[in-house]
Write a structure and sequence with these properties.
Elements (H helix, E strand, L loop, with lengths): L10 E6 L2 H5 L2 H14 L6 E6 L11 E4 L3 E3 L4 H14 L7 E4 L19
Parallel strand pairs: 1-2
Antiparallel strand pairs: 1-3, 3-4, 4-5
Helix pairs in contact: 2-3
Bound molecules: FE2/S2 (inorganic) cluster.
Length: 120
């Protein structure tokens, strides 16, 4: 069993694999997101956890990124890759698939829609 060095982790990503999200492609989203993390060498700084239902089935597949408190909806394999290349690698939120932002510090420029990406 592996023991991850948590001291380098900057992001914890929750990948919903409840029944509804799974029916809508969540397992492919998980595979793509994890492969993209590996491809970009982000394994040490991003930890992923598959979860059961997060209570937003109609918006699934759901991907949640902490500590930013960002909930992404309708995540496809394409947008899963974009979450990695934009959010996890460059700290750019994908506003076109943003469901909810939990974090209170909303004046942080990182959360401005001015930082929107071209990601679909
Ligand atoms: S199964 Fe993913 S939110 Fe319900």
């Amino acid at each position: 069993m592996a023991t991850k060095d948590l001291s380098k982790v900057r992001y914890h990503v929750f990948l919903c694999e409840g029944d509804s999200c799974t029916k809508r492609g969540a397992c492919d989203v998980t595979s793509t997101l994890r492969a993209e993390i590996a491809r970009l060498g982000l394994d040490e700084v991003v930890h992923t956890t598959r979860t059961r239902c997060n209570g937003r089935c109609q918006d699934g597949p759901i991907v949640i990124v902490y500590p930013d408190g960002i909930w992404y909806r309708d995540v496809s394999t394409e947008s899963a890759a974009e979450i990695v290349t934009n959010h996890l690698a460059e700290e750019l939120i994908l506003h076109n698939t943003l469901l909810y932002q939990f974090r209170a510090e909303r004046n942080d420029p990182k959360y401005s829609s001015d930082n929107d990406t071209d990601a679909k």
